[in-house]
Amino acid sequence: MIPYRPSAAGAVLAIIALALTAAPATAAPAQAVPREVVQAATVEPPPEVLDAMRRDLGLTREQVITRLGNEEQARRLQPKLRAKLKDRYAGSWVNQEGSLAVATTDAAAATAVTAAGAQAKVVARSLATLTSIKGALDTTAGQGALDAVASKGAGRKVPVWFVDERANTVVVQALDTAAGEAFVAASGVDRAAVRIETITERPVTFQNLRGGDAYYISGGTRCSIGFPVTQGGTQGFVTAGHCGTPGLTTSGSGGQSQGTFQGSSFPGDDYSWVAVNSQWIARPAVNPYGTEMVPVFGSAEAPVGSAVCRSGSTTHWHCGTIQERNTSVTYSQGTIFQVVRTNVCAEPGDSGGPFISGYQAQGVTSGGSGNCSAGGTTFFQPVNEILNAYGLTLSTVSTQCAGHPNHHFNELTAHQGSFGNLIPDAGIYPPNGFASAGAGTHTACMDGSGTARMRLSLQKYTCCGPFGTPIWVEVATTGTGTTLKSLTTSQPAGTYRWVVSVSDSIVVPTTPIGEYYFLGTTSPA
Fold first, then answer.
1. Catalytic residue list contains 242
2. What's this model's pTM, rounded to 2 decimal places?
3. Per-residue confidence (pLDDT) for residue 418, from 0 to 100
4. On the CB side of 291, how many CA atoms lie within 13 Å of its CA?
5. In the annotation, is 270 catalytic?
6. Chain-centre distance of CA 247, in angstroms?
7. What is the phi-psi region of residue 82: left when phi exceeds 0, alpha when psi lies from -120 to 50, beta otherwise?
8. What is the pLDDT of residue 47?
9. Is 126 a catalytic residue?
10. Which of 102, 424, 509, 518 has CB atoms 3.0–4.6 Å from 399's, for a disulfide?
11. How far is 287 from 363, CA to CA, in rounded Å?
Protein backbone atom coordinates (compact mmCIF):
# COMPACT_ATOMS: atom_id res chain seq x y z
CA MET A 1 0.00 0.00 0.00
CA ILE A 2 1.27 3.45 -0.87
CA PRO A 3 1.88 5.62 2.20
CA TYR A 4 0.15 8.98 2.17
CA ARG A 5 2.19 11.89 0.79
CA PRO A 6 0.68 15.34 1.40
CA SER A 7 0.95 17.99 -1.28
CA ALA A 8 2.23 20.47 1.29
CA ALA A 9 3.78 19.70 4.63
CA GLY A 10 2.63 21.62 7.69
CA ALA A 11 1.99 21.08 11.36
CA VAL A 12 0.83 23.02 14.38
CA LEU A 13 2.05 22.17 17.86
CA ALA A 14 -0.28 23.29 20.66
CA ILE A 15 1.39 23.86 24.04
CA ILE A 16 -0.72 24.12 27.16
CA ALA A 17 0.99 25.97 29.97
CA LEU A 18 0.33 25.37 33.64
CA ALA A 19 -0.55 28.34 35.76
CA LEU A 20 1.77 28.34 38.76
CA THR A 21 0.71 29.72 42.12
CA ALA A 22 3.24 31.43 44.38
CA ALA A 23 3.18 33.06 47.79
CA PRO A 24 1.47 36.47 47.94
CA ALA A 25 3.42 39.69 48.12
CA THR A 26 3.56 41.81 51.25
CA ALA A 27 0.12 43.30 51.87
CA ALA A 28 -0.90 46.73 52.99
CA PRO A 29 -2.80 46.81 56.29
CA ALA A 30 -6.20 45.24 55.83
CA GLN A 31 -9.14 47.63 55.76
CA ALA A 32 -12.87 47.05 55.64
CA VAL A 33 -13.69 48.43 52.21
CA PRO A 34 -17.28 48.64 51.00
CA ARG A 35 -17.62 47.12 47.55
CA GLU A 36 -20.46 46.31 45.26
CA VAL A 37 -21.74 42.75 45.54
CA VAL A 38 -23.02 41.37 42.27
CA GLN A 39 -26.41 39.75 42.77
CA ALA A 40 -27.20 36.42 41.16
CA ALA A 41 -29.82 37.95 38.92
CA THR A 42 -27.28 40.40 37.47
CA VAL A 43 -25.25 37.93 35.41
CA GLU A 44 -26.58 34.77 33.74
CA PRO A 45 -23.78 32.86 31.97
CA PRO A 46 -24.47 30.41 29.16
CA PRO A 47 -25.27 26.88 30.40
CA GLU A 48 -21.99 25.50 28.99
CA VAL A 49 -19.96 28.04 30.97
CA LEU A 50 -21.98 27.47 34.10
CA ASP A 51 -21.65 23.69 33.93
CA ALA A 52 -17.91 23.77 33.16
CA MET A 53 -17.10 26.14 36.02
CA ARG A 54 -19.17 24.11 38.46
CA ARG A 55 -17.33 20.99 37.35
CA ASP A 56 -13.79 22.35 37.13
CA LEU A 57 -13.76 24.85 39.99
CA GLY A 58 -16.06 23.09 42.42
CA LEU A 59 -18.42 26.07 42.68
CA THR A 60 -22.16 26.31 43.19
CA ARG A 61 -24.32 28.00 40.58
CA GLU A 62 -24.59 31.13 42.73
CA GLN A 63 -20.83 31.24 43.26
CA VAL A 64 -20.21 30.98 39.53
CA ILE A 65 -22.55 33.85 38.77
CA THR A 66 -21.09 36.03 41.52
CA ARG A 67 -17.54 35.29 40.44
CA LEU A 68 -18.20 36.10 36.79
CA GLY A 69 -19.82 39.35 37.80
CA ASN A 70 -16.85 40.30 39.97
CA GLU A 71 -14.40 39.37 37.24
CA GLU A 72 -16.26 41.54 34.77
CA GLN A 73 -15.91 44.45 37.20
CA ALA A 74 -12.22 43.63 37.61
CA ARG A 75 -11.68 43.66 33.83
CA ARG A 76 -13.16 47.14 33.65
CA LEU A 77 -11.35 48.48 36.71
CA GLN A 78 -7.87 47.08 36.14
CA PRO A 79 -6.89 49.21 33.10
CA LYS A 80 -8.15 52.34 34.82
CA LEU A 81 -6.02 51.76 37.91
CA ARG A 82 -3.02 50.81 35.81
CA ALA A 83 -3.29 54.03 33.86
CA LYS A 84 -3.70 56.04 37.06
CA LEU A 85 -0.73 54.46 38.84
CA LYS A 86 1.57 54.65 35.79
CA ASP A 87 5.13 53.71 36.80
CA ARG A 88 3.94 52.88 40.32
CA TYR A 89 1.84 50.00 39.01
CA ALA A 90 3.23 46.59 40.07
CA GLY A 91 0.70 44.08 38.75
CA SER A 92 -2.80 42.77 39.43
CA TRP A 93 -4.79 39.57 39.83
CA VAL A 94 -8.18 38.30 40.96
CA ASN A 95 -8.80 36.02 43.93
CA GLN A 96 -11.06 32.95 44.05
CA GLU A 97 -14.16 35.13 44.35
CA GLY A 98 -13.12 37.14 41.30
CA SER A 99 -12.24 40.26 43.31
CA LEU A 100 -9.41 42.45 42.02
CA ALA A 101 -6.12 43.03 43.85
CA VAL A 102 -3.69 45.68 42.59
CA ALA A 103 -0.05 46.04 43.63
CA THR A 104 1.71 49.39 43.78
CA THR A 105 5.14 50.65 44.82
CA ASP A 106 3.62 53.79 46.37
CA ALA A 107 2.02 53.41 49.79
CA ALA A 108 0.27 56.73 49.32
CA ALA A 109 -1.50 55.34 46.25
CA ALA A 110 -3.01 52.43 48.18
CA THR A 111 -5.87 54.62 49.39
CA ALA A 112 -6.88 55.42 45.81
CA VAL A 113 -6.79 51.74 44.91
CA THR A 114 -9.06 50.71 47.77
CA ALA A 115 -11.38 53.65 47.14
CA ALA A 116 -11.83 52.38 43.58
CA GLY A 117 -12.98 48.99 44.91
CA ALA A 118 -9.82 46.87 44.68
CA GLN A 119 -7.57 45.42 47.34
CA ALA A 120 -4.23 47.25 47.54
CA LYS A 121 -0.83 45.66 48.11
CA VAL A 122 2.29 47.74 48.58
CA VAL A 123 5.41 46.11 47.11
CA ALA A 124 9.03 46.96 46.34
CA ARG A 125 9.25 46.55 42.56
CA SER A 126 7.14 47.93 39.75
CA LEU A 127 5.82 45.67 37.00
CA ALA A 128 8.09 47.50 34.56
CA THR A 129 11.10 46.50 36.68
CA LEU A 130 10.00 42.87 36.85
CA THR A 131 9.32 42.79 33.13
CA SER A 132 12.77 44.20 32.45
CA ILE A 133 14.38 41.48 34.56
CA LYS A 134 12.37 38.80 32.75
CA GLY A 135 13.42 40.36 29.43
CA ALA A 136 17.09 40.14 30.41
CA LEU A 137 16.66 36.43 31.14
CA ASP A 138 14.95 35.97 27.78
CA THR A 139 17.83 37.71 26.04
CA THR A 140 20.37 35.59 27.88
CA ALA A 141 18.61 32.40 26.82
CA GLY A 142 18.28 33.64 23.26
CA GLN A 143 22.02 34.29 23.10
CA GLY A 144 22.71 30.68 24.00
CA ALA A 145 23.80 31.42 27.53
CA LEU A 146 21.92 28.38 28.82
CA ASP A 147 24.31 26.23 26.83
CA ALA A 148 27.30 28.48 27.43
CA VAL A 149 27.02 28.07 31.19
CA ALA A 150 26.51 24.32 30.99
CA SER A 151 29.85 23.78 32.65
CA LYS A 152 28.51 25.71 35.65
CA GLY A 153 25.50 23.44 35.94
CA ALA A 154 22.91 25.16 33.74
CA GLY A 155 22.69 23.84 30.19
CA ARG A 156 19.19 22.51 29.68
CA LYS A 157 18.47 22.43 33.40
CA VAL A 158 16.61 25.75 33.48
CA PRO A 159 13.37 25.19 31.58
CA VAL A 160 11.00 27.85 32.98
CA TRP A 161 11.08 31.48 34.16
CA PHE A 162 8.27 34.00 34.63
CA VAL A 163 7.09 37.15 36.42
CA ASP A 164 5.12 36.35 39.59
CA GLU A 165 3.07 39.50 40.14
CA ARG A 166 1.54 38.19 43.37
CA ALA A 167 4.97 37.65 44.93
CA ASN A 168 6.52 40.73 43.27
CA THR A 169 9.44 38.74 41.96
CA VAL A 170 10.76 36.87 38.95
CA VAL A 171 10.81 33.09 39.36
CA VAL A 172 13.40 30.84 37.76
CA GLN A 173 12.59 27.13 37.87
CA ALA A 174 15.61 24.88 37.53
CA LEU A 175 16.37 21.20 37.90
CA ASP A 176 19.01 22.15 40.45
CA THR A 177 19.94 25.34 42.30
CA ALA A 178 23.42 25.63 40.78
CA ALA A 179 21.94 25.69 37.27
CA GLY A 180 19.49 28.43 38.24
CA GLU A 181 22.21 30.48 39.91
CA ALA A 182 24.45 30.19 36.85
CA PHE A 183 21.66 31.30 34.54
CA VAL A 184 20.75 34.32 36.68
CA ALA A 185 24.41 35.29 37.05
CA ALA A 186 24.90 35.12 33.28
CA SER A 187 22.02 37.53 32.76
CA GLY A 188 23.46 40.15 35.12
CA VAL A 189 20.09 40.92 36.75
CA ASP A 190 19.54 41.84 40.38
CA ARG A 191 19.79 38.53 42.22
CA ALA A 192 17.56 39.79 45.02
CA ALA A 193 14.69 40.20 42.56
CA VAL A 194 14.79 36.56 41.50
CA ARG A 195 13.51 33.50 43.33
CA ILE A 196 15.00 30.19 42.23
CA GLU A 197 12.75 27.18 42.58
CA THR A 198 13.95 23.62 42.19
CA ILE A 199 11.73 21.34 40.14
CA THR A 200 12.16 17.62 39.66
CA GLU A 201 11.39 17.26 35.96
CA ARG A 202 11.93 19.28 32.83
CA PRO A 203 8.58 20.11 31.16
CA VAL A 204 8.06 18.26 27.88
CA THR A 205 5.05 17.54 25.72
CA PHE A 206 4.82 13.79 26.32
CA GLN A 207 3.17 11.68 23.67
CA ASN A 208 1.87 8.13 23.82
CA LEU A 209 2.70 5.61 21.15
CA ARG A 210 -0.51 3.82 20.17
CA GLY A 211 -1.19 1.49 17.33
CA GLY A 212 -3.02 3.25 14.50
CA ASP A 213 -1.77 6.77 15.25
CA ALA A 214 -0.21 8.77 12.44
CA TYR A 215 3.50 9.44 12.10
CA TYR A 216 5.47 11.26 9.42
CA ILE A 217 8.69 10.23 7.70
CA SER A 218 11.24 13.02 7.25
CA GLY A 219 8.47 15.59 7.58
CA GLY A 220 6.44 14.40 4.59
CA THR A 221 5.09 10.91 3.95
CA ARG A 222 2.50 9.69 6.45
CA CYS A 223 2.13 6.13 7.71
CA SER A 224 0.55 4.55 10.81
CA ILE A 225 2.11 3.11 13.95
CA GLY A 226 1.76 -0.67 14.15
CA PHE A 227 2.40 -1.86 17.70
CA PRO A 228 4.52 -0.22 20.41
CA VAL A 229 7.55 -2.33 21.36
CA THR A 230 10.72 -2.23 23.41
CA GLN A 231 14.27 -3.41 22.79
CA GLY A 232 16.01 -3.50 26.14
CA GLY A 233 15.59 0.02 27.51
CA THR A 234 14.68 1.52 24.12
CA GLN A 235 11.06 2.17 23.25
CA GLY A 236 9.66 2.24 19.74
CA PHE A 237 7.14 0.72 17.37
CA VAL A 238 6.87 -1.70 14.46
CA THR A 239 5.41 -0.62 11.15
CA ALA A 240 5.56 -1.40 7.43
CA GLY A 241 8.93 -1.75 5.72
CA HIS A 242 7.89 0.30 2.71
CA CYS A 243 7.30 3.31 5.00
CA GLY A 244 11.01 3.97 5.62
CA THR A 245 14.62 2.82 5.60
CA PRO A 246 17.24 2.87 8.38
CA GLY A 247 18.34 6.39 9.30
CA LEU A 248 15.18 8.18 8.23
CA THR A 249 13.61 10.25 11.00
CA THR A 250 9.99 10.33 12.11
CA SER A 251 7.74 12.88 13.78
CA GLY A 252 4.35 12.70 15.46
CA SER A 253 1.07 14.09 14.18
CA GLY A 254 1.79 17.46 15.85
CA GLY A 255 5.23 17.76 14.26
CA GLN A 256 7.04 16.72 17.45
CA SER A 257 10.37 14.95 16.94
CA GLN A 258 9.78 11.24 17.44
CA GLY A 259 12.40 8.73 16.36
CA THR A 260 14.57 7.02 13.74
CA PHE A 261 14.13 3.89 11.63
CA GLN A 262 16.48 1.21 12.98
CA GLY A 263 15.76 -1.60 10.58
CA SER A 264 13.64 -2.22 7.49
CA SER A 265 12.99 -5.09 5.09
CA PHE A 266 11.13 -4.48 1.81
CA PRO A 267 10.42 -6.12 -0.61
CA GLY A 268 10.57 -9.81 0.31
CA ASP A 269 9.17 -8.79 3.67
CA ASP A 270 7.28 -5.63 4.59
CA TYR A 271 8.33 -4.68 8.07
CA SER A 272 10.45 -2.16 9.96
CA TRP A 273 10.89 -0.74 13.43
CA VAL A 274 11.45 2.76 14.77
CA ALA A 275 13.25 3.65 18.01
CA VAL A 276 11.76 6.76 19.64
CA ASN A 277 13.19 9.48 21.88
CA SER A 278 12.46 9.95 25.57
CA GLN A 279 9.40 12.13 24.96
CA TRP A 280 7.43 9.14 23.70
CA ILE A 281 6.12 6.25 25.74
CA ALA A 282 5.24 2.83 24.34
CA ARG A 283 1.70 1.98 25.48
CA PRO A 284 0.07 -1.46 25.06
CA ALA A 285 -2.85 -0.04 23.13
CA VAL A 286 -4.47 0.31 19.73
CA ASN A 287 -6.38 3.47 18.90
CA PRO A 288 -9.82 2.58 17.49
CA TYR A 289 -10.65 6.27 17.10
CA GLY A 290 -13.50 6.04 19.59
CA THR A 291 -14.01 6.67 23.29
CA GLU A 292 -11.73 3.90 24.58
CA MET A 293 -8.47 2.19 23.67
CA VAL A 294 -8.13 -1.48 22.70
CA PRO A 295 -5.66 -3.29 24.99
CA VAL A 296 -2.98 -5.60 23.64
CA PHE A 297 -2.59 -8.77 25.73
CA GLY A 298 -0.24 -10.71 23.46
CA SER A 299 0.41 -11.89 19.91
CA ALA A 300 -1.18 -15.34 19.70
CA GLU A 301 -1.84 -16.14 16.05
CA ALA A 302 -5.54 -16.21 15.13
CA PRO A 303 -6.69 -19.00 12.77
CA VAL A 304 -8.11 -18.43 9.32
CA GLY A 305 -11.73 -17.28 9.50
CA SER A 306 -11.16 -15.31 12.71
CA ALA A 307 -12.51 -11.81 13.01
CA VAL A 308 -9.78 -9.20 12.76
CA CYS A 309 -9.80 -5.41 12.97
CA ARG A 310 -7.41 -2.78 11.69
CA SER A 311 -6.61 0.78 12.74
CA GLY A 312 -5.03 3.42 10.53
CA SER A 313 -4.55 7.16 10.38
CA THR A 314 -6.56 7.58 7.16
CA THR A 315 -9.64 5.38 7.48
CA HIS A 316 -9.40 4.67 11.22
CA TRP A 317 -11.12 1.48 12.48
CA HIS A 318 -12.36 -1.29 10.18
CA CYS A 319 -12.96 -5.00 10.67
CA GLY A 320 -13.34 -8.18 8.63
CA THR A 321 -11.96 -11.73 8.69
CA ILE A 322 -8.69 -13.51 8.02
CA GLN A 323 -8.98 -15.12 4.58
CA GLU A 324 -5.65 -16.92 4.10
CA ARG A 325 -2.23 -17.10 5.69
CA ASN A 326 1.12 -17.69 3.95
CA THR A 327 0.12 -15.50 1.03
CA SER A 328 2.54 -13.98 -1.50
CA VAL A 329 1.64 -10.69 -3.12
CA THR A 330 3.47 -8.70 -5.76
CA TYR A 331 3.50 -4.91 -5.72
CA SER A 332 5.23 -2.67 -8.23
CA GLN A 333 8.29 -2.65 -5.95
CA GLY A 334 8.52 -6.46 -5.74
CA THR A 335 7.02 -9.55 -4.14
CA ILE A 336 6.20 -9.95 -0.45
CA PHE A 337 6.08 -13.47 0.96
CA GLN A 338 4.16 -15.06 3.85
CA VAL A 339 1.73 -12.24 4.47
CA VAL A 340 -1.90 -12.72 5.56
CA ARG A 341 -4.83 -11.92 3.29
CA THR A 342 -7.98 -10.30 4.76
CA ASN A 343 -11.21 -8.73 3.51
CA VAL A 344 -10.62 -5.62 5.64
CA CYS A 345 -10.43 -2.38 3.68
CA ALA A 346 -7.57 0.14 3.86
CA GLU A 347 -6.31 3.20 2.01
CA PRO A 348 -3.03 5.13 1.57
CA GLY A 349 -1.74 6.39 4.94
CA ASP A 350 -3.06 3.30 6.76
CA SER A 351 0.21 1.52 5.90
CA GLY A 352 1.99 0.09 8.92
CA GLY A 353 -1.08 0.22 11.14
CA PRO A 354 -2.06 -2.66 13.44
CA PHE A 355 -4.22 -5.69 12.81
CA ILE A 356 -5.65 -7.13 16.03
CA SER A 357 -7.93 -10.10 16.73
CA GLY A 358 -9.68 -9.76 20.06
CA TYR A 359 -6.86 -8.49 22.28
CA GLN A 360 -4.09 -10.33 20.36
CA ALA A 361 -1.75 -8.46 17.99
CA GLN A 362 -1.66 -10.03 14.52
CA GLY A 363 0.38 -7.86 12.19
CA VAL A 364 0.97 -4.56 10.41
CA THR A 365 -0.79 -3.31 7.29
CA SER A 366 1.17 -3.95 4.10
CA GLY A 367 -0.96 -3.23 1.03
CA GLY A 368 -3.98 -4.30 -0.93
CA SER A 369 -6.66 -3.23 -3.33
CA GLY A 370 -9.99 -1.43 -3.20
CA ASN A 371 -10.93 1.20 -0.64
CA CYS A 372 -13.17 1.76 2.36
CA SER A 373 -16.03 3.13 0.29
CA ALA A 374 -16.51 0.08 -1.92
CA GLY A 375 -14.61 -2.52 0.13
CA GLY A 376 -11.32 -4.20 -0.56
CA THR A 377 -8.62 -6.71 0.23
CA THR A 378 -5.70 -5.92 2.54
CA PHE A 379 -2.61 -7.93 3.45
CA PHE A 380 -0.73 -7.75 6.72
CA GLN A 381 2.78 -8.74 7.72
CA PRO A 382 2.64 -11.05 10.78
CA VAL A 383 3.89 -9.27 13.89
CA ASN A 384 5.71 -12.21 15.48
CA GLU A 385 8.10 -12.38 12.54
CA ILE A 386 8.98 -8.71 13.09
CA LEU A 387 9.54 -9.21 16.81
CA ASN A 388 11.85 -12.17 16.16
CA ALA A 389 13.77 -10.42 13.40
CA TYR A 390 14.84 -7.49 15.59
CA GLY A 391 14.73 -8.97 19.08
CA LEU A 392 11.78 -6.79 20.11
CA THR A 393 9.31 -7.20 22.94
CA LEU A 394 5.67 -6.36 22.31
CA SER A 395 4.19 -3.86 24.78
CA THR A 396 1.32 -5.71 26.46
CA VAL A 397 -1.17 -5.15 29.25
CA SER A 398 -0.47 -6.96 32.49
CA THR A 399 -3.66 -6.96 34.54
CA GLN A 400 -5.24 -8.81 37.42
CA CYS A 401 -8.68 -7.60 36.36
CA ALA A 402 -9.30 -9.49 33.13
CA GLY A 403 -11.81 -11.85 34.75
CA HIS A 404 -14.61 -9.28 34.75
CA PRO A 405 -16.90 -9.48 31.70
CA ASN A 406 -17.06 -5.73 31.01
CA HIS A 407 -13.64 -4.42 29.99
CA HIS A 408 -12.61 -0.77 29.70
CA PHE A 409 -9.10 0.26 28.75
CA ASN A 410 -8.18 3.91 28.52
CA GLU A 411 -5.67 6.63 29.29
CA LEU A 412 -6.01 9.37 31.89
CA THR A 413 -6.48 12.68 30.08
CA ALA A 414 -6.80 16.33 31.08
CA HIS A 415 -8.32 19.56 29.80
CA GLN A 416 -7.46 23.22 30.21
CA GLY A 417 -9.33 24.88 33.07
CA SER A 418 -10.59 28.45 33.39
CA PHE A 419 -7.28 29.83 34.68
CA GLY A 420 -4.92 27.95 32.38
CA ASN A 421 -4.54 25.07 34.83
CA LEU A 422 -4.65 21.58 33.42
CA ILE A 423 -7.58 19.70 35.01
CA PRO A 424 -7.63 15.87 35.07
CA ASP A 425 -10.62 14.36 33.30
CA ALA A 426 -12.81 11.76 34.95
CA GLY A 427 -13.37 8.50 33.09
CA ILE A 428 -17.09 7.62 32.91
CA TYR A 429 -18.15 4.02 32.25
CA PRO A 430 -20.04 2.70 30.42
CA PRO A 431 -18.95 5.15 27.70
CA ASN A 432 -22.55 6.26 27.10
CA GLY A 433 -22.56 7.57 30.66
CA PHE A 434 -24.82 5.23 32.66
CA ALA A 435 -26.47 1.81 32.87
CA SER A 436 -29.59 0.50 34.59
CA ALA A 437 -29.06 -2.28 37.10
CA GLY A 438 -31.24 -4.40 39.32
CA ALA A 439 -30.78 -4.81 43.04
CA GLY A 440 -27.67 -6.79 43.91
CA THR A 441 -23.90 -6.72 43.98
CA HIS A 442 -21.67 -4.51 41.83
CA THR A 443 -18.00 -5.44 41.51
CA ALA A 444 -15.07 -3.72 39.86
CA CYS A 445 -11.33 -4.15 39.51
CA MET A 446 -8.88 -1.56 38.19
CA ASP A 447 -5.13 -1.66 37.79
CA GLY A 448 -2.35 -0.14 35.75
CA SER A 449 0.95 1.68 36.21
CA GLY A 450 -0.74 4.95 37.20
CA THR A 451 -3.48 3.69 39.49
CA ALA A 452 -1.66 4.34 42.80
CA ARG A 453 -2.86 7.96 42.61
CA MET A 454 -6.21 7.12 41.06
CA ARG A 455 -9.55 6.22 42.63
CA LEU A 456 -12.54 4.22 41.45
CA SER A 457 -16.08 5.00 42.55
CA LEU A 458 -19.63 3.88 41.86
CA GLN A 459 -22.19 6.67 41.49
CA LYS A 460 -26.00 6.45 41.52
CA TYR A 461 -28.25 8.78 39.55
CA THR A 462 -30.81 10.88 41.38
CA CYS A 463 -32.99 13.46 39.67
CA CYS A 464 -32.62 16.40 39.50
CA GLY A 465 -30.73 19.61 40.20
CA PRO A 466 -31.46 23.16 39.01
CA PHE A 467 -32.54 23.37 35.37
CA GLY A 468 -32.88 19.59 35.26
CA THR A 469 -29.18 18.99 35.87
CA PRO A 470 -28.65 15.31 36.77
CA ILE A 471 -27.26 14.63 40.22
CA TRP A 472 -24.91 11.71 40.78
CA VAL A 473 -24.30 10.49 44.33
CA GLU A 474 -21.20 8.48 45.17
CA VAL A 475 -22.28 5.26 46.89
CA ALA A 476 -18.95 3.40 47.07
CA THR A 477 -15.27 4.18 46.43
CA THR A 478 -11.86 2.54 46.65
CA GLY A 479 -9.97 5.66 47.73
CA THR A 480 -6.34 6.12 46.65
CA GLY A 481 -3.03 4.74 47.82
CA THR A 482 -2.70 1.29 46.24
CA THR A 483 -2.03 0.13 42.70
CA LEU A 484 -4.77 -2.53 42.46
CA LYS A 485 -8.28 -1.21 43.12
CA SER A 486 -11.07 -3.69 43.96
CA LEU A 487 -14.61 -2.76 44.89
CA THR A 488 -17.63 -4.87 45.86
CA THR A 489 -20.87 -3.22 46.97
CA SER A 490 -24.54 -4.18 47.27
CA GLN A 491 -26.98 -1.57 46.02
CA PRO A 492 -30.71 -1.26 45.27
CA ALA A 493 -32.02 -1.16 41.72
CA GLY A 494 -31.26 2.06 39.88
CA THR A 495 -29.08 3.81 37.32
CA TYR A 496 -25.35 3.70 37.98
CA ARG A 497 -22.01 4.65 36.49
CA TRP A 498 -18.36 3.90 37.31
CA VAL A 499 -16.00 6.89 37.60
CA VAL A 500 -12.20 6.82 37.40
CA SER A 501 -10.51 9.94 38.78
CA VAL A 502 -7.36 11.15 40.54
CA SER A 503 -6.79 12.86 43.86
CA ASP A 504 -5.33 15.96 42.18
CA SER A 505 -7.61 18.89 41.34
CA ILE A 506 -5.02 20.22 38.88
CA VAL A 507 -2.17 18.51 37.08
CA VAL A 508 1.10 18.37 39.02
CA PRO A 509 4.32 16.54 38.02
CA THR A 510 3.16 13.34 39.73
CA THR A 511 -0.35 13.28 38.22
CA PRO A 512 -0.42 10.17 35.98
CA ILE A 513 -1.72 11.96 32.87
CA GLY A 514 -1.26 9.68 29.86
CA GLU A 515 -1.10 6.54 31.99
CA TYR A 516 -3.33 3.68 30.96
CA TYR A 517 -5.62 1.78 33.28
CA PHE A 518 -7.61 -1.41 32.85
CA LEU A 519 -11.07 -1.55 34.40
CA GLY A 520 -13.25 -4.64 34.69
CA THR A 521 -16.80 -4.39 36.03
CA THR A 522 -19.90 -6.45 36.74
CA SER A 523 -23.39 -5.22 37.65
CA PRO A 524 -26.61 -7.07 38.46
CA ALA A 525 -29.09 -7.47 35.62
1. yes
2. 0.60
3. 65
4. 10
5. yes
6. 29
7. alpha
8. 47
9. no
10. 518
11. 15
